[in-house]
Design a protein that fits this description.
This protein has helices at about 5-20, 60-75, 95-105, 115-120, and strands spanning about 25, 30-35, 45-50, 55, 125, 130-135, 140-145, 145-150, 160, 170-175. The termini are far apart. The chain is α+β, with helices and mostly antiparallel strands. The chain has one domain (about 20-175): endopeptidase fold (from Nostoc punctiforme), CATH 3.90.1720. The strands form 2 sheets. It has a 6-stranded antiparallel β-sheet.
Length: about 180
């Protein structure tokens, strides 16, 4: 049996996790919608259906809808170092290749960037309303309408819609102007 102190510490840790990272909630298609503290307006969250396909909110901007559709196209592809950098259509994608691919599909990026460039020069510093790229010198991932597309996490490596929480410490948040 756990001691009172152990239970209290476990509960406090869970409460901190719930505040610090995305939480999963029921989505409109019987799937899961991801929500973060700076998510789009209420009711404007992307969802993932039981088949793993992401669905953009009806009132999302066209760029967001196109980016989510692009994420669906590459979801499940393997992680390939440098994938998505030499050409847009690749057999697999690395982290920044994944982010570059969906931003390009949304009309927000002309040529692929590496994760360090996303952290330093792309977009505007801070969290966006619809799209936020988190990057540092070694990794990048993106939230599209509150749903995270990342090459690391549970369920295999390579581009996947990730519903589990993610540590944000050490990452710079950037977004496209107006989104």
């Amino acid at each position: 049996m756990l001691s009172y102190l152990t239970r209290a510490l476990a509960l406090a840790s869970l409460m901190l996790l719930a505040v610090a990272v995305p939480a999963a909630t029921a989505g409109p298609n019987g799937g899961v919608a991801a929500e973060i503290a700076t998510s789009p307006a209420p009711g404007a969250l992307a969802s993932v259906d039981r088949f793993g396909v992401a669905h953009a909110p009806a009132r999302a901007p066209r760029a967001v809808k196109r980016a989510i559709a692009a994420g669906n196209r590459i979801q499940g592809r393997p992680y390939v170092w440098g994938g998505g950098h030499a050409k847009w259509n690749s057999r697999g994608y690395d982290c920044s290749g994944t982010v570059s691919y969906v931003l390009h599909a949304g009309g927000l990026l002309d040529s692929p960037l590496v994760s360090g460039a996303f952290a330093r020069i792309w977009g505007v510093r801070g969290k966006g309303r619809w799209i936020t790229v988190y990057a540092n010198g070694g990794h990048a991932f993106v939230f599209l309408a509150g749903l995270r597309l990342d090459t690391s996490g549970r369920g295999g490596s390579g581009p996947r819609w990730r519903l589990e929480p993610r540590q944000m410490r050490g990452f710079v948040a950037r977004h496209p102007r107006g989104l």
